[in-house]
């Protein structure tokens, strides 16, 4: 097994801390979406070259790349929002898979509408890339707030406004006495 030097190990840990920070989520989203887009465009190009009609080829390419997009989103982009236990993992994975595909129905339609409209005056790959770009803007908001939203605690669900109140501070050293009830 390869041993890493202390400074290299610290550098890797620092890089991971930055890469998987909340602030870097848009960057991870772009990487995930970029990979899915490359897969979609590659499949589209291959299917059109095989004689498929471009609109049908675009739908099939979109559906197949969506599976890669979901897995990368689950395990990479929103990895910090994973279930707390292995017992919940399969349920959460399946639940998010259903939510993901339900949410992309709209963006798939948006993607296809942009593709068909743009296809009349630009090449298929550019039209598809345009559709991907427009749909991705909607996707980030939807994925972040609905599909991969952080799990709320039962206290946050019951008392959402209570969680926002500032803590009360005791101004003197004496602690409040307990009441005998």
TrEMBL record:
<feature type="domain" description="GtrA/DPMS transmembrane">
    <location>
        <begin position="28"/>
        <end position="148"/>
    </location>
</feature>
<keyword id="KW-0812">Transmembrane</keyword>
<keyword id="KW-0472">Membrane</keyword>
<feature type="transmembrane region" description="Helical">
    <location>
        <begin position="97"/>
        <end position="118"/>
    </location>
</feature>
<feature type="transmembrane region" description="Helical">
    <location>
        <begin position="55"/>
        <end position="76"/>
    </location>
</feature>
<dbReference type="Pfam" id="PF04138">
    <property type="entry name" value="GtrA_DPMS_TM"/>
</dbReference>
<dbReference type="InterPro" id="IPR051401">
    <property type="entry name" value="GtrA_CellWall_Glycosyl"/>
</dbReference>
<feature type="transmembrane region" description="Helical">
    <location>
        <begin position="124"/>
        <end position="148"/>
    </location>
</feature>
<protein>
    <recommendedName>
        <fullName>GtrA/DPMS transmembrane domain-containing protein</fullName>
    </recommendedName>
</protein>
<comment type="similarity">
    <text>Belongs to the GtrA family.</text>
</comment>
<feature type="transmembrane region" description="Helical">
    <location>
        <begin position="27"/>
        <end position="49"/>
    </location>
</feature>
<dbReference type="InterPro" id="IPR007267">
    <property type="entry name" value="GtrA_DPMS_TM"/>
</dbReference>
<keyword id="KW-1133">Transmembrane helix</keyword>
